[in-house]
Every structure is written in C-alpha cells, then in structure tokens.
Amino acid sequence: MENTESEKSILELRNVRIHNRRTSLRLEPTMWEAIDEILNRENMTIHQLCTHIHDIRRQIEESTKRHSSLTSALRMFIVIYYRKAATETGHVKAGHGSGSLQSLAQAMEML
C-alpha cells in the first residue's frame, strides 16, 4: 500500500559519521536548517558536531544511567545553543517580550 502525501514523514534523513561509523538521523527541516547555521558559524562539519554530542551524551549516560537518542541529544543541543546566544538586545530586536505574540505567529507561519 502506497503512502498518501499526508502520510509521508516530514522528517528529513541525513547520514553522518561518528568515530568513522556511519549512522542516520531524522529531523525536521527547520532543525536541519538550525544545525547548518550552527555548523557555518562554528566552522564545523556535521560529523564533528555529532561526534562531539555523541561523546558528551555517553559521558552523561554513564554518570546518570539515563539514556537518550542521538537525535534527542541533537535537538537539545540546538535549543541550548540558541538559548545561550539569546541576549536582551536580540530579544528586543526580534520583538519578544512586548506582550504581543506577533513574532511567534510569524515564526509559526514559516513551518
């Protein structure tokens, strides 16, 4: 049975190498765009970033006995990266905190 257009996944699949081992990740297009922006800013490859996140995730798992997927860890990294980059000046320029959710509505329209 063939999937209809509405049943198809909106996730994009990309292959990455972690310690020279190939794996694949599925993320939303917006997440991949955020990662590409981070890679450009940090002058890294996707393979370097994923290896770094993988290694940190393993250390956390060993010390806390809590497990997470690489995809989940990558999403968390994106949120943490941009939260650390957020400043009051940046929020003002983006129109955040004005009591209006206009910027949120604009962001949601991009989805």
What would your notes on this structure say?
This protein is of the alpha+beta class. The chain has a single domain (9-109), classed as Ribbon-helix-helix fold (Orthogonal Bundle). The protein has five helices and two strands; from the N terminus they run E-E-H-H-H-H-H. It has a two-stranded antiparallel sheet. A hairpin with a 2-residue loop joins strand 1 (12-18) and strand 2 (21-27). Helix 2 (46-64) crosses helix 3. 3% of the residues are buried. The mean pLDDT is 82.
Set out the fold topology:
Blueprint: E1 12-18, E2 21-27, H1 29-42, H2 46-64, H3 70-85, H4 88-94, H5 102-109
Antiparallel strand pairs: 1-2
Helix pairs in contact: 2-3
List keywords for this structure.
single chain; 111 residues; alpha+beta; Ribbon-helix-helix fold; two-stranded antiparallel sheet; 2 strands; globular
Structural class call reads alpha+beta
Strand content: 5-15%
**Secondary-structure element pattern, one letter each:** EEHHHHH
CATH class: Mainly Alpha
Strand order of the largest sheet: 1-2
- Mean pLDDT across all amino acids: 82
**Model regions low in confidence, pLDDT < 50 over at least 5 residues:** none
Largest sheet, in brief, is: 2 strands, antiparallel
Number of domains: 1
First-residue to last-residue Cα separation: 28 Å
The overall strand count is 2
- The dominant shape is globular
Radius of gyration: 17 Å
What is the correct CATH architecture?
Answer: Orthogonal Bundle
